[in-house]
Amino acid sequence: MFINFRRIHKWKCVQLLTTAMVLCVLTVCWEELDHHVVSHVRSYSYRYLFNRYDFLNTTISHSNHPRKDGYSRVAGHSVKYPYLINHPNKCRGKNGKVWDDVLLLLFVKSSPDNFKRRQAIRETWGNESFAWSQLGVSVTLLFATGIYADEAHRSRVQDALQQEDNAFGDLIQQSFIDTFHNLTTKLIMQFHWSHKYCPQTHFLMSADDDIFVHMPNLVKYLQQLLDSQSGAKDIWVGHVHKGAPPVRRKDSKYFVPYDLYPWPSYPDYTAGAGYVVSGDVASKIYQATLVLNSSLYIDDVFMGMCAKIMGVSPLEHAYFSGGGKAPYHPCIYDHMITSHGHSADVRSLWRAAIDFRASNSSRGFLDELYCTAVRVMLLCRLHLQSTYSCTAAFN
């Protein structure tokens, strides 16, 4: 029996080189790998195996008791932002009497200079007259905004905002700077306004100004909730993120440092692009904002924290989208509620959705089978998971 020592020596060299190459690749790609795989596994395990929520204590609260004033909290301080534009009677009739039949208070988060997006929404899915005349319900539309960030053009943009509001009467503005890091402040403004001026609304929706809402489908869904045995209580519905980890990459827009949020998992929350809460949940979130430190600037996560301490859990709906656009197809319009990433195409999408609704009030078995097959082909792809999941094809 002979042993080829030269061959063994060569094999060890190959092993050594391979190991070195793998280590080099891991070293270079570790941050990306950790972001997409390791941190998600660790976060999901923390959230669902241990279910530890140590942040629900005084370290992230301002006080042990809710305050009753109108203050918003930013970076651990109480800051009162006065209204620059407000419509306290928006949910009241001309005689000042409160409307009891407001089905939906629709808040659209909008940057001060996004006039074209707001106008497109007014003419399509946010049109209050359409909701009343065609759907038979009362929908109140408001755009939530702050002060334009660029000081050089702030005065010009503010004048344009005032003129816009004079024409349409649907802007709500406070004196904070309108930036990504003040989104939580904008969220607090919405729930505080609702609590003070429109507490009787059955539902509140928070939406970005670059989403499309299929209002007929949404109204139908909300009316079904009202007619249910629960009577539309404890409702918080949208595209749910479960066991999501904080982003620790400093080059990311969503970077959250350990000193701001030291835990490896966020509570469950819905995508901030568009979600709906029932009136009782809106009141609970308002109470939570009086307690929680609002220094966490990712508004949808802050919403999840508020809901968690109030005992409210998010409900997944297959046709509330995540970060991506819904595929364009009539078989999608029949079920769509929200789709993210729309600005220039809102009017054409609205016409297509309404035309499809008018011409397809009832479909036969073969039509339903065809649409199911189409939805499977369009939705059951990995790169579309942030819009609708594959299960949506069968709903």
Care to describe what's here?
The chain is of the alpha/beta class and 395 residues long. The protein has 3 domains: 1-52; 58-316, Spore Coat Polysaccharide Biosynthesis Protein SpsA, Chain A (Alpha-Beta Complex); 330-394, no CATH class. Helix content is 41%, strand content 15%. The chain contains 11 helices and 14 strands. The strands form 4 sheets. It has an 8-stranded mixed beta sheet with strand order 3-6-5-4-7-12-9-13, sandwiched between helices. Strands 1-2 form a two-stranded antiparallel ribbon. Helix 5 (183-197) packs across helix 8 and helix 7 (279-289) packs across helix 8. The longest helix is centred in the first third of the chain and has 46 residues, at 5-50. It starts with a helix and ends in a 16-residue tail after the last helix.
